[in-house]
Structures are given as C-alpha cells and as structure tokens.
C-alpha cells in the first residue's frame, strides 16, 4: 500500500455511512461515483476489512463499519469543537458551553446559575436549548452538549451527575375557591379523573416514578393526554380536560388558571440533576462546575 489515509477518506466514509447509497453520497460530496467507490476501497484496504455490504439494491454497514462510523462521528464532533474553540480564542473569548435543560429547571437554580456564570466567567459564550431528558443524554454521550439539566435516577458512565435540587410533587387542578380549604390531598378522591402527564419521552425514569404514586394508592390512572411541555399541561388542566401531577417547583414562573395542591406527604421525590460527559475536553467544564458548586 503506497498511499496514506487522509481526512477526506473518513469524510467520504461518513457520508456513505449516513446515506447508505453511493450515488446519493457522491452527489452530496460533489464527486463522481466511481471516484467515491475508489476512496472507500482504499479505506477498506487500509483497515484490511470490508466496511460495507453491497449489492445492486442495498448498502449496509458491516460490524467493523458500524464501529468506524461511531468513532468517526466522535472524531468530527471533536474537530468541530476544536474549530469553535480556536475561533473563540481569536475573538477574545475563553470558550463556549452548550447547555440543555428541561422546562422545570428554569423555575429552580438554573437562572441564578447563568447570572453567576456570566458574572464570574464573562468570556464564556452560552448556548441554551430546551430539550427532553432522553435527547439531552444522547447529545451528552456524543459530546454535542456540554451539560444537561435532567430528571433521571442516575447517570451511566461515561456520564457523571450531581443533584441540583430535590422536589416533591403537586396535584394540578382547575382553579377553584374550594381548593384553598384542602389541607391534605387524598388521591383516592381523584381515581375517576382523567390525568394529563409528562410522557415517557420526557424521561422514562421520571414517568415510572409518577406511576409509582398511583401504584401506592392502589389504582391505575386514566391517562388521556401526555406531553413534554409543562405549559401545555397547565392549559389543558385549566380547560377542564383532566388533572395532573408535576414537580412542585413548576408552580413558579407560570401564570395559568390552575391550582397546585401539595403532595409533600407522599414519599416520592424527583431530583433535578446536572449531567456531563467525563470525556468532554471543553475547558469550560471545570469553570462551570465551580460556579455550580458555589450555589449548591
């Protein structure tokens, strides 16, 4: 073999692996299909193994191809991060951080944390994205997100987490003067109600935790609607379409026509956690954690 593997070979491989179609990949890369096939053949010769299974109709990744695709994705993510970091330094910035969060985080420590970070580390650029728990965890694993504020039981390696806030639950009902007289909620009184809950797409572990509340009270709720958006839940409840169980912290910051009935007498608690990837080499990671440590 008298040639060296270059970055373009991996770029071509990545495109074919995403398209699983040589002609479409060639068009996307603006090269001729025979040239693309030749580049992939050189890559397979270099690794001394087939990366694709090809016939006249289908293109599939081999086991080695799947492994290389995963590593190449990480490589290009890191290269993009290096480019971003170099550009930040050129512009006089220290680094950038991409933060994911669920809606309930905004009603807790999250805003004050951002204020403190901007004050202590003004040279760090922040990008915020409201995302579901599951999407945040996936992006953290790919190093496409630096930190996530999520509700999960525990983080699996290489992810690491610290608890930010533990919260009890509240029952959300349409606003009514009679609610002010309720001292202690008995969920048995609501067993015939329709429930509007955060879906499993919000967080599977969180959903299971809420369902355990009903299990403790000996009934299965009639769940008529599921969503990942708190405001949607409150609006649906206010229109009389059902009741809901949510973290108590969500009663802050929303102006909706509902009442929150405290469920602190129940044993279930939900924890908002800060999660990051231990393998993330962003220099802003340690600085952000220092700011978090000063608040919790």
From TrEMBL:
Q: Does the keyword DNA-binding apply?
A: yes
User: InterPro entries given for it?
Assistant: LysR_HTH_N, LysR_subst-bd, WH-like_DNA-bd_sf, WH_DNA-bd_sf
SUPFAM superfamilies, sorted: Periplasmic binding protein-like II (SSF53850), Winged helix' DNA-binding domain (SSF46785)
- Statement: the UniProt record of this protein carries the keyword Transferase: no
Residues forming the HTH lysR-type domain are 5-62
**Pfam families with a match to the protein in the record:** HTH_1, LysR_substrate
Keywords of the record, alphabetical order, are: DNA-binding, Transcription, Transcription regulation
At the top level, the lineage of the source is: Bacteria
Write out the similarity annotation: Belongs to the LysR transcriptional regulatory family.
The protein, known as: LysR substrate-binding domain-containing protein
Q: Which organism is it from?
A: Sphingobacterium kyonggiense
């Amino acid at each position: 073999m008298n040639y060296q593997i270059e970055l373009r070979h991996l770029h071509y491989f990545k495109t074919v692996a995403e398209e699983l179609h040589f002609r479409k990949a060639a068009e996307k890369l603006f090269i001729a299909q025979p040239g693309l096939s030749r580049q992939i053949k050189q890559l397979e010769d270099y690794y001394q193994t087939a990366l694709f299974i090809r016939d006249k109709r289908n293109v599939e990744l081999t086991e080695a191809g799947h492994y290389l695709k995963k590593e190449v994705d990480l490589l290009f993510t890191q290269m993009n991060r290096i480019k971003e970091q170099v550009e930040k330094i050129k512009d006089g910035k220290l680094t950038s951080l991409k933060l994911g969060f669920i809606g309930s985080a905004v009603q807790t420590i999250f805003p004050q944390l951002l204020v403190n970070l901007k004050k202590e580390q003004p040279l760090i650029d922040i990008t915020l994205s409201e995302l579901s728990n599951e999407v945040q965890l996936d992006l953290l694993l790919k190093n496409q997100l630096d930190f996530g504020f999520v509700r999960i039981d525990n983080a699996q390696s290489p992810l690491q987490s610290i608890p930010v806030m533990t919260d009890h639950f509240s029952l959300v009902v349409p606003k009514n003067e009679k609610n002010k007289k309720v001292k202690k909620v008995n969920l048995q009184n609501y067993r015939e109600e329709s429930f509007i809950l955060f879906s499993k797409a919000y967080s599977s572990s969180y959903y299971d935790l809420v369902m355990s509340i009903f299990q403790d009270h000996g009934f299965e709720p009639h769940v008529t609607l599921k969503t990942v958006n708190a405001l949607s839940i409150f609006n649906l409840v206010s229109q009389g379409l059902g009741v809901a169980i949510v973290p108590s912290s969500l009663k802050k910051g929303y102006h909706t026509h509902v009442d929150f009935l405290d469920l602190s007498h129940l044993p279930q608690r939900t924890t908002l956690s800060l999660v990051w990837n231990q393998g993330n080499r962003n220099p802003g990671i340690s600085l952000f954690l220092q700011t978090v440590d000063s608040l919790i």
